[in-house]
């Protein structure tokens, strides 16, 4: 059972990771003069969109998600609306945090917000998919004994990696190398994406490695 | 508590750090004293007037005019011409004019390699080839503030002799020689990417000027080649274009030269293959020098020994003697002999005469310098003196005999000049790698020492560990001194100190290793995230880009660390109350230890608010930063300019009101805090200081700002009053604050004792007295404030062994403010001190200081909340110990506020105005202004270091009342706050020592990192611009903050002693 779950997660992660690559390659065919640095926002939104779509599809198909208490339509709609609201709030939250970290407040606000959208897609959206719109559960997941399934553990790892990646991405900005990727926010978005991909790879490996030690409480 | 051992350990560690810094700086920073004398023509050449014909200036100068074309970064390779080269690179064979002239007119033109001295930066080079001296990193002169050259130099001498000096080109010259030029056309040099502005500006003006005739000396400084190197490197078509343009310029200038005019074309330094310069590699030092005169000047090639390489300093005496002006006083150059006449062609000064004048001048400089400074080794000085007297007597003899100077004498004169130059070079322009290495290792050892001491603080406090290291250090230092005395005849203090420091470190570490073999010093603990942040900070000091944007880097790291604290708590499951289903918990955990959920929620909420305040003030603090020269598009904060300079009156009023409001908020918050903890009740002098001196000083400060902001011409009839007020008000504020500080020191207790019940007398047998502090039970006090009170339980209940409640025996004494007995004087001291430091800053900085107060408060609260929340995990034995995260936060905050108060680690950004607060007429001495400027520069270091012990006290101050008691421990209903420290003196001293060692470690590691940066990158392009100033600021910041740490700790000790004597006084009273 363990191995099956890990294998399923690894394949789900592979699909998500390939969606990132597809989102990088596809616009090159469709959009003229596309490049990751030059038309950065196009790349960013294409990655964010494809990761969002693939995430939702994969988790819906796999049937991973919070147990729903009621199955009525109105309940589902309210959950959907709450999820959208939470996503928006998380974008604003990330935007604020990034500004507090020293991003320019007014100039290039669009770029900063796009970074926030990308970060929300990589972190909050997965929380929404796995845990549902439930902040209590989110806070619970990010504690040492908070994970209740392998999916929770993988969520911990990928979220941490994405945020740390974005954080590390800010490091090269002050350097005087005059590279195109040092422009705000390219290094941060690249860092977040690379961190996310690392997390996708690392999560199954880590869980497999520690499968003996991991014990989950039954929900 | 153990006061003396803790203080002694701290002093010892600080001393070791100082020795390390002293050694390294002594080997790295080369200091030269500026001799502020100038040469004049009337200077007598022969001692005692023995010789009638001894004018310093040649009567008939060889040239009347000179054109100096300085082509920045004209490397010697660029000037060479190789006709055999079929496919020249972009920088080769582009200046054919030089070669043409040299080969076709050998008696009129010469091309030399012109060797510069490091540092090969333009400003230092200009200084070098105008003064003829060897500029070091710090030329200790009269004015630190402006970059103007005060030493005797060519431009000054030319002006003195009435020559009209016309300058055009690089505007660096204008700051170096303000008001020295007859006419000047400066062009902005800052933008390295701009290749043409300066050059085109010169080209538009140089030919009309030359033809106009209103000049004697024309200096044109072209920057295009240098900028091209910086932007594209030498191997780029743009370089070919630029050099070709220079070729045309030289041709055109040669065509316009008159017969009495000398042309000098020179590069000030070379460049590396990437187009950079600043270091001391041969590619950077070797420039080209081309001399041309329309009339025959040089002897035929081959008739004389030609120098292959001309040192840059040699241009100064040569030009001076050719133009008939005195050689600048501090020049150590040597005349270029081929330019002076030999016996065959006697025109102008002969070679022998020129050399003699030169020797005489250099000797005079050497004598003056060695009487002022002691950095030239005495043995070489005596040798040089002997050599000079020999030359002098021989020359006099040959002059009296009327013979020309013999060639042997000429050679020995040249040798003398060379050896003087080399001696000076050795003491001014060379690093001392051995000293640097020893300094580095002493510093590294000191850092390890701090870490070990902080880990072993509890063991260290209980045993005397200091004796052996100190004895060891003294012995080794003495042995080194004796050895030096025996072998060299004199003692060099640096080596004795270095030996002493190293040996005492080693002996301490060896002993502690032997004493504690079990893995108490786990290296894995060094990888804690807080220390990783510190590591990142240290790594950032090794890159010039990060040092340039240091303010932002530190803020970023602070932000990270402060967000990490709640995330970590959440990860440990401590941020939220545990779920109610406790039945599944393993039985190992004691359920009584958990906090009630409501308390956890409240603490978590407080903590999140604190994080918010902290991060918010971090963000706001970014708007107070100043700008470095290297940050191109940056705008300095508008709050940095003094109010009197703000033109718009509405804006000025707004700024003034803002500053005043923050000043008032500063005073109010302090007052409020003290009142909240019941520290304003006693009739003591400290409370007097807090209640009256603080507001009075604030009022003085506010009035002073108002006075100094009034425009000078607005109240003419009140000018005298305003002038008086500018002196009196700040001095009054200083006096009040000084009085307050000394009062706090004199009687630091802010405890108010109130007797409540009649004391009962007992028999003579007095058991050891016991006291305890507890919360008030008087409903009045409860209603008002949170006032902890002291009960002196009557002895009967003690004797009976009955833990008597208050109603049992009746409280003897209530003490207000006992719970914050340690922190209140410290807070008050910092408040007073901060006000004084604020007075030294521009008015707008009041906002930054308020931000500092808020941020440090938020930080302390954050630390207190996280301590409370994580108190479950902590073993009770080291109850007071402060973890790394808050210490690192505290130290980084000190660095952050260094930037937020408008400072930068560069010399031009020092706020010199601070020296004139209260002294608008200037000073007579140097000690007072230096102190004021130091206080201004390191104000944030001082404040954070003095208040560092608060990190230890704050969790106790914020202790949750009622909860600890409900645990059913022996404390009963008491919230004893800081009296806990009193109850565990051993733990108190060890925790205090640990905290201080951690703080010193965090600051010391940063010093170590910047020392490493300076040592490793000593050949880096930016070393004199970025790393060396950073090192200076970091090292002096460390010295200042370590002294402040000692001040803070000794205040705590003082309070502790006072509390001890208070209790001693109370207990006999109660027992009587």
Q: Kindly give the count of domains of chain A.
A: 1
End-to-end CA span of chain B: 27 Å
Overall body shape of chain B: elongated
Instruction: Count every helix of chain B, treating DSSP H or I runs of 4 or more residues as helices.
Output: 38
Structure overview:
Chain B: Keywords: Endoplasmic reticulum, Glycoprotein, GPI-anchor biosynthesis, Membrane, Transferase, Transmembrane, Transmembrane helix. Chain B: One of its GO terms (biological process) is GPI anchor biosynthetic process. The complex is a heterodimer of chains A (219) and B (1072). By secondary structure, chain A is an all-alpha fold. Chain A has one domain. Chain A contains eight helices and no strands. Chain A is globular and about 50 Å long. The mean pLDDT of chain A is 88. In chain B, 56% of the residues lie in helices and 6% in strands. Chain B has an eight-stranded mixed sheet, with helices on both faces. A two-stranded parallel sheet of chain B has the order 1-4. Chain B is an alpha/beta fold. Chain B folds into three domains: 116 residues; 389 residues, 3-Layer(aba) Sandwich (Alkaline Phosphatase, subunit A), CATH 3.40.720.10; 449 residues, no CATH class. Chain B is elongated and about 105 Å long. The interface between A and B is medium-sized, with 17 and 25 residues.
């Amino acid at each position: 059972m363990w191995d099956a779950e890990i294998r399923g997660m690894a394949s789900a992660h592979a699909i998500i990771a390939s969606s990132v690559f597809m989102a990088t390659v596809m616009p090159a065919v469709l959009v003229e003069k596309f490049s990751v640095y030059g038309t950065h926002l196009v790349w960013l939104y294409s990655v964010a969109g494809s990761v969002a779509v693939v995430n939702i599809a994969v988790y819906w198909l796999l049937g991973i998600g919070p147990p729903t208490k009621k199955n009525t339509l109105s309940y589902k709609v309210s959950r959907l609306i709450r999820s959208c609201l939470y996503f928006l709030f998380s974008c604003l939250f990330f935007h604020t945090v990034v500004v507090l970290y020293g991003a320019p407040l007014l100039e290039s606000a669009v770029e900063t917000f796009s970074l926030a959208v990308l970060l929300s897609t990589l972190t909050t959206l997965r929380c929404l998919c796995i845990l549902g719109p439930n902040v209590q559960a989110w806070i619970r997941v990010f504690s040492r004994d908070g994970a209740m399934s392998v999916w929770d553990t993988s969520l911990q790892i990928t979220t941490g990696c994405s945020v740390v990646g974005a954080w590390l991405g800010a490091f090269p900005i002050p350097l005087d190398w005059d590279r195109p990727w040092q422009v705000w926010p390219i290094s941060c978005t690249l860092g977040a994406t690379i961190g996310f991909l690392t997390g996708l790879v690392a999560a199954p490996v880590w869980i497999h490695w520690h499968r003996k030690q991991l014990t989950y409480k039954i929900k | 508590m153990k006061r003396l051992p803790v203080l002694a350990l701290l002093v010892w560690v600080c001393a070791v750090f100082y020795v390390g810094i002293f050694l390294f700086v002594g080997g790295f920073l080369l200091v030269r004293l500026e001799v502020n004398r100038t040469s004049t023509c009337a200077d007598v050449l022969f001692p005692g007037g023995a010789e009638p014909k001894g004018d310093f200036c040649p009567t008939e100068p060889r040239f009347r005019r000179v054109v100096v074309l300085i082509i920045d970064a004209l490397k010697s390779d660029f000037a060479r011409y190789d006709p055999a080269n079929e496919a020249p690179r972009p920088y080769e064979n582009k200046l054919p004019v030089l070669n043409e002239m040299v080969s076709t007119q050998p008696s009129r033109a010469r091309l030399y390699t012109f060797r510069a001295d490091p540092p090969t930066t333009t400003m230092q080079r200009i200084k070098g080839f105008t003064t003829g001296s060897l500029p070091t990193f710090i030329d200790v002169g009269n004015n630190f503030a402006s970059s103007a050259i005060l030493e005797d130099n060519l431009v000054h001498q030319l002006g003195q002799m009435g020559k009209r000096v016309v300058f055009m080109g690089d505007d660096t010259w204008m700051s170096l020689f303000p008001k020295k030029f007859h006419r000047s056309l400066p062009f902005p040099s800052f933008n390295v990417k701009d290749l043409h502005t300066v050059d085109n500006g010169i080209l538009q003006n140089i030919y009309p000027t030359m033809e106009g005739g209103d000049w004697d000396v024309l200096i044109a400084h072209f920057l295009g080649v240098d900028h091209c190197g910086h932007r594209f490197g030498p191997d780029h078509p743009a370089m070919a274009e630029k050099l070709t343009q220079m070729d045309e310029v030289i041709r055109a200038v040669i065509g316009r030269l008159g017969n009495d005019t000398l042309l000098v074309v020179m590069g000030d330094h070379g460049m590396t293959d990437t187009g950079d310069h600043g270091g001391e590699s041969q590619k950077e030092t070797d420039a080209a020098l081309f001399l041309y005169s329309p009339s025959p000047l040089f002897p035929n090639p081959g008739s004389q020994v030609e120098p292959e390489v001309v040192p840059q300093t040699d241009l100064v005496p040569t030009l001076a003697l050719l133009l008939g002006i005195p050689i600048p006083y501090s020049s150590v150059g040597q005349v270029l002999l081929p330019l002076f006449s030999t016996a065959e062609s006697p025109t102008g000064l002969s070679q022998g005469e020129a050399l003699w004048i030169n020797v005489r001048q250099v000797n005079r400089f050497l004598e003056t310098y060695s009487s002022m400074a002691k950095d030239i080794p005495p043995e070489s000085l005596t040798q040089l003196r002997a050599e000079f007297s020999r030359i002098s007597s021989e020359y006099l003899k040959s002059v009296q005999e009327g013979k020309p100077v013999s060639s042997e004498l000429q050679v020995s004169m040249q040798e003398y000049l060379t050896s003087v130059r080399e001696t000076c070079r050795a003491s001014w322009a060379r690093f001392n790698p051995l000293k640097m290495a020893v300094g580095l290792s002493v510093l590294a050892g000191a850092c390890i020492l701090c870490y070990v001491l902080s880990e072993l603080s509890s063991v260290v406090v209980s045993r005397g560990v200091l004796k052996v290291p100190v004895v060891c250090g003294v012995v080794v230092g003495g042995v080194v001194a004796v050895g030096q005395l025996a072998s060299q005849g004199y003692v060099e203090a640096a080596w004795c100190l270095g030996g002493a420091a190293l040996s005492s470190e080693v002996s301490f570490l060896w002993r502690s290793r032997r004493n504690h073999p079990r893995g108490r010093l786990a290296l894995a603990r060094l990888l804690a995230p807080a220390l990783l942040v510190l590591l990142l900070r240290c790594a950032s000091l090794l890159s010039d880009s990060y040092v340039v944007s240091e303010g932002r880097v530190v803020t970023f790291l602070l932000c990270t660390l402060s967000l990490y604290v709640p995330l970590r708590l959440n990860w440990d499951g401590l941020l939220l109350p545990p779920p109610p289903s406790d039945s599944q918990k393993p039985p190992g955990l004691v359920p009584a230890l958990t906090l009630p959920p409501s308390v956890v929620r409240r603490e978590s909420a407080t903590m999140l608010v604190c994080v918010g305040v902290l991060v918010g003030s971090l963000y706001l603090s970014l708007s107070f930063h100043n700008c470095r020269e290297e940050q191109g598009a940056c705008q300095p904060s508008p709050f940095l300019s003094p109010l009197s300079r703000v033109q718009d009156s509405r804006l000025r009023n707004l700024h003034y009101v803002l500053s005043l409001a923050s000043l008032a908020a500063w005073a109010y918050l302090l007052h409020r805090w003290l009142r909240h903890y019941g520290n304003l009740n006693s009739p003591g002098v400290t409370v007097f200081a807090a209640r009256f001196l603080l507001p009075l000083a604030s009022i003085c400060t506010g009035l002073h700002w108002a006075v100094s902001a009034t425009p000078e011409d607005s109240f003419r009839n009140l000018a005298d009053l305003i002038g008086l007020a500018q002196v009196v008000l700040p001095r009054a504020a200083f006096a009040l604050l000084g009085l307050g500080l000394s009062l706090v020191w004199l009687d630091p207790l802010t405890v108010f004792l109130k007797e409540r019940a009649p004391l009962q007398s007992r028999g003579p047998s007095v058991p050891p007295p016991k006291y305890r502090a507890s919360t008030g039970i008087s409903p009045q006090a409860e209603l008002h404030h949170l006032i902890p009170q002291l009960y002196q339980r009557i002895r009967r209940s003690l004797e009976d062994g009955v833990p008597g409640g208050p109603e049992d025996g009746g409280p003897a004494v209530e003490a207000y403010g006992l719970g914050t007995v340690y922190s209140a004087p410290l807070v008050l001291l910092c408040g007073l001190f901060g006000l004084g430091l604020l007075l030294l800053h521009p008015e707008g900085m009041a906002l930054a200081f308020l931000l500092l107060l808020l941020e440090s408060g938020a930080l302390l609260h954050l630390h207190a909340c996280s301590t409370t929340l994580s108190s479950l995990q902590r073993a009770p034995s080291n109850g007071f110990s402060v973890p790394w995260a808050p210490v690192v936060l505290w130290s980084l905050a000190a660095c952050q506020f260094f930037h937020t108060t408008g400072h930068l680690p560069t010399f031009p950004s020092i706020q010199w105005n601070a020296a004139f607060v209260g002294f608008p007429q200037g000073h007579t001495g140097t000690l007072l202004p230096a102190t004021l400027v130091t206080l201004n520069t390191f104000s944030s270091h001082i404040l954070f270091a003095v208040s560092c012990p608060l990190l230890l006290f704050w969790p106790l101050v914020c202790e949750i009342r009622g909860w600890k008691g409900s645990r059913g421990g022996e404390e009963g209903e008491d919230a004893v706050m800081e009296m806990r420290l009193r109850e565990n003196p051993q733990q108190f001293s060890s925790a205090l020592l640990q905290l201080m060692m951690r703080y010193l470690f965090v600051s010391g590691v940063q010093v170590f990192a910047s020392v490493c940066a300076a040592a490793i990158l000593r050949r880096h392009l930016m070393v004199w611009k970025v790393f060396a100033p950073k090192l200076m600021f970091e090292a002096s910041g460390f010295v200042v903050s370590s002294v402040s740490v000692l001040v803070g700790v000794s205040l705590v000790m003082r309070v502790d002693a006072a509390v001890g004597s208070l209790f001693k006084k109370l207990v006999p009273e109660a027992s009587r």
